[in-house]
Amino acid sequence: MGMISRVRGRIRSDSFSKIHTMKSEDKIANIVWLLSVVLLLPYWAPRGLFVALGGAWLMAAYTCLVVPVLISANYRYPARWYPAVAKLAQEVARRLRAPGACLLGMLRTAYAPLERAERLFLQMNNLSTMICQLLVFTACDKLFVSQGRLTCLYSLMFYNVITYSVSYVREICTKEDWSPYVNVTRHSRVKHLAMSATKIVLEWTKAVTFIVTITFILLTLGLEQGLEHFRPTALYTAITGTYYLLTERTFLELWPIALSAMKLERLEGMEALYCGVWARGVTTALALPLVPALAWCERWRLSILVLYVCVFMHGRHRLGEALVKMNEACDSLAKFRRATPEELSTLEDVCAVCLGSMKSARVTPCAHYFHADCLRRCLATSDRCPICVRPYVFC
């Protein structure tokens, strides 16, 4: 038994060491790839960086010194996606040689790695949202502002300050525990001194930061100091403000709450889904007319970036996912009929899920009444009635 345990431990340690070696090699490969991109940037300059600095001889010497090192380093530490790209190229070549090759299938195969990169980029929600905002703001800056050169950056800074202020005020309004102390456990009355001091310092820091930020913005706008290049027009402010309000996460969380306060029975408690579709649809529609306008002004690079990032990627993935979620919710409720006003007037009961009064409801085949949103959430976990636990049977 002792020998078996020692062998198992040795095998486990060898596997751990192999995994650690693979991870370190992957890190080195990624670093080599990034350095290669940085060192090749001079070749992508508009007129050649080294030609402008010292002529073609300097560029030739740079090529002789750097390119062999990059080739050997990438050969020694290849990135993981190199074999995938080679395999993809072989697959595309095989399909091209095949008789009757399907063009659509070949395009899908070639687009698959790019689609994975798009989804990875959109998963970094804050980064992708900020890049979309910068692209739209820069496009509006080029189209609607004639004299201001940094209007997009100033506008984004002011909008971020407003977002921070709104989120801080919301945190204060929804805060329940105003005690400056932190207990050792949830049910204990013993105070944790270090955590309590940390909490007090953090709360005061946030409050002071909020006051200083608001004061600085008011002084900047009132005295107009440092705003020589900030010349927004009314159309510029309307487009950028609408786009920002419909893409920033803080406001995306507030729109369903505001829509719920209107108590629109037609939405049936699915305000979050409808707001998601409306917000993504409006932002895609705002970015779409900017593309031909930029192309008309010969801003080709910016127009291509706006078309790909803000229209294609945003519309295909984010708007498409929001539409799929809303369609799935509507399809799951389509089998259940709406309760008539006569049925609701005679119904002296509440929703069994949320215990709220019912001004609109859906009726199950077993004659039970639920809010549409409550029923949709129950259907996501079970296909049985929450009250009588019978499976739904539709005639």
Automatic annotation (TrEMBL):
Signal peptide: none annotated. Coiled coil: none annotated. InterPro entries: Znf_RING, Znf_RING/FYVE/PHD. One of its GO terms (cellular component) is ubiquitin ligase complex. SMART domains: RING. It comes from the Eukaryota. Pfam families: zf-C3HC4_2. This is RING finger protein 145. It comes from Papilio machaon. The lineage of its organism: Eukaryota, Metazoa, Ecdysozoa, Arthropoda, Hexapoda.
